Amino acid sequence: MEKSSYFLFGGTNFNKKKFAPDFAKFKNCTEDDDSNKKVNFFVEEEDTEEQKEKVVVFSKKRKRRSSNSVPVEGFDVFKSSKKALAKGKAEEGNTKNDILEDPKKELNRQIERDALSRKQYNIHVSGNNIPPPLKSFAELSSRYGCEGYILGNLAELGFKEPTPIQRQAIPILLSGRECFACAPTGSGKTVAFICPMLIKLKHPSTDGIRAVILSPARELAAQTAREGKKLIKGSNFHIRLMTKPLVKTADFSKLRCDVLISTPMRLKRAIKAKKIDLSKVEYLVLDESDKLFEQSLLKQIDCVVKACSNPSIIRSLFSATLPDSVEELARSIMHDAVRVIIGRKNTASETVKQKLVFAGTEEGKLLALRQSFAESLNPPVLIFVQSKERAKELYDELKCENIRAGVIHSDLPPGERENAVDQFRAGEKWVLIATDVIARGMDFKGINCVINYDFPDSASAYIHRIGRSGRAGRSGEAITFYTEQDVPFLRNIANMMMSSGCEVPSWIMSLKKKKWRKHRPRRDSISTQPKADKNDKDV
Ligand SMILES: Nc1ncnc2c1ncn2[C@@H]1O[C@H](COP(=O)(O)OP(=O)(O)OP(=O)(O)O)[C@@H](O)[C@H]1O
């Protein structure tokens, strides 16, 4: 009791001495530093018609993975099998001699080599005539005539080898095919859709918007725009982020814009106000597509997809989670689309060490949080809660303490949201309390720990939340607090933990599995104020 009240009222300190190396990394963490870290990691690794009328909305028996996979230092999806690689190389040597002898034989060999390469990178595809996966970024130039500046920019970012999703999705999109892709959080999907778009667009043009990327949240749209701009350095391409002022004041007929990145709501506003012409759009990417297909965004997506009326448009869907329902919708409106899955569909990142912590009650959660901070606060730490009210409450509890906390939720004005993200990125805030507004897509460098203070409301929320850690092959940690109210869904999380190689107590595995429904129970407010005081205040 004494111990808990110490944690409850004692406040928390980040032990800078104890965590000096981490702290230094965190403090000095710049994007460039990070890409260098990435390099090391990757180097270490071996190498319509129907649509016009439709409201455009666009199976799984999992094999348990053996748990003897190589730990962290890399996703399974980044892993390569040396044997397979050697075999592939030997065969490649033999084949060169045979090419002229028998074209049919060569075709079969090519198919075999592609299959081998896909196996090596855990790439699963379905569809007809799927182009071979990339062997290297250099192939972009030999096979597809990619301009030197793109390769230069990839190299400058420290991207030496394509990630598995990049190996397969880039050639698919470059061959003019539509595609829906599911690859783990932090596995490089952004480059996988921006890079082929730039190669296909070839040259900047003054002829209006030619590519659109939709993201479900402003922060993610801004991040994608920033990443895109890194890839167009040295060219005259214009990538624009749809901001509120742009919607209000810009004259899109005069504005140079090759690629437009927006949330569905902002783009819909511009379309409805007849401010923007999307009839020349050649590429449409729906990032975090399953989120975009949620009921609340469907009308906006429908409006955008209809406005992109170019009959030869290439559409693609990317996400780390792809429910069967979204796949079905996608199939029904896309043409001859290729399906690419890296690893297994809808699974949590294998580079994140996941833990479940029973906190008993809401008060218990706060105690557990303070206790874990007091014992070892290893920033940056991202804490997810289920609502903006709870984000504010938790922030109020932690702000006076010594842990430099920030908060982000949808009630904050855009500037403050931006600030919260920037300060966290810059290491000025050690802890960021957030709702699910930033659960998807956000690429914070080197988050050490994600804490699900409130149990996630769905399997996909769990996957995306914990996927803010353990990105690009780095290791990370995720702690999920649960109370009695969450026990019915415990088994669901436990299953995901098991299938990504984490240990789960056997009693949890013997619980009944319950079908997820949005799980957002009413929770007691977050406060350490003694109940008597609170009542006094209420009176
Ligand atoms: N080929 C590469 N080599 C090394 N690092 C890469 C490569 N491609 C992308 N990255 C880095 O990997 C990180 C994750 O990339 P990205 O944000 O695109 O992941 P994602 O798959 O879209 O994740 P999420 O599902 O969470 O949106 C980024 O920091 C990015 O810079």
Bound molecules: adenosine-5'-triphosphate
Radius of gyration: 24 Å
| Number of beta-strand segments | 14
Rounded average pLDDT: 82
Q: Helical element count?
A: 23
Number of domains: 2
The CA-CA distance between the termini, in Å, is 29 Å
* Largest beta-sheet details: 8 strands, mixed
SSE-based structural type: alpha/beta
State the oligomer: single chain
CATH class of the largest domain: Alpha Beta
Low-confidence spans: 1-15, 27-85, 532-539
Please name the CATH architecture of the largest domain: 3-Layer(aba) Sandwich
- Percentage beta strand: 5-15%
Name the helicity range: 40-55%
| CATH topology annotation of the largest domain | Rossmann fold
- The CATH superfamily of the largest domain turns out to be P-loop containing nucleotide triphosphate hydrolases
Tell me, briefly, the overall form: globular
Strand neighbour order, sheet with most strands: 1-8-2-7-6-3-5-4
Organism: Arabidopsis lyrata subsp. lyrata (Lyre-leaved rock-cress)
EC number: 3.6.4.13
Domain Helicase ATP-binding: 170-340
Protein name: RNA helicase
Notes on the structure:
The protein starts with a helix and ends with a helix. The longest helix has 18 residues, at 103-120. The chain is globular and about 75 Å long. The chain has two domains: 106-342, 3-Layer(aba) Sandwich (Rossmann fold); 352-510, Rossmann fold (3-Layer(aba) Sandwich). It has helices at residues 2-10, 20-28, 31-44, 49-53, 82-98, 103-120, 138-144, 148-156, 164-174, 189-201, 218-232, 244-249, 264-272, 289-292, 295-307, 324-333, 362-376, 388-398, 414-425, 459-466, 490-499, 506-509, 531-538; strands at residues 123-126, 179-182, 211-214, 239-241, 259-262, 283-287, 314-319, 338-342, 352-360, 381-384, 405-408, 431-434, 449-452, 476-483. The chain has 23 helices and 14 strands. With 539 residues, it is α/β, with parallel strands linked by helices. The chain has an eight-stranded mixed beta sheet. The protein has a six-stranded parallel beta sheet with strand order 9-14-13-10-12-11, with helices on both faces. Adenosine-5'-triphosphate binds next to helix 3 and helix 10.
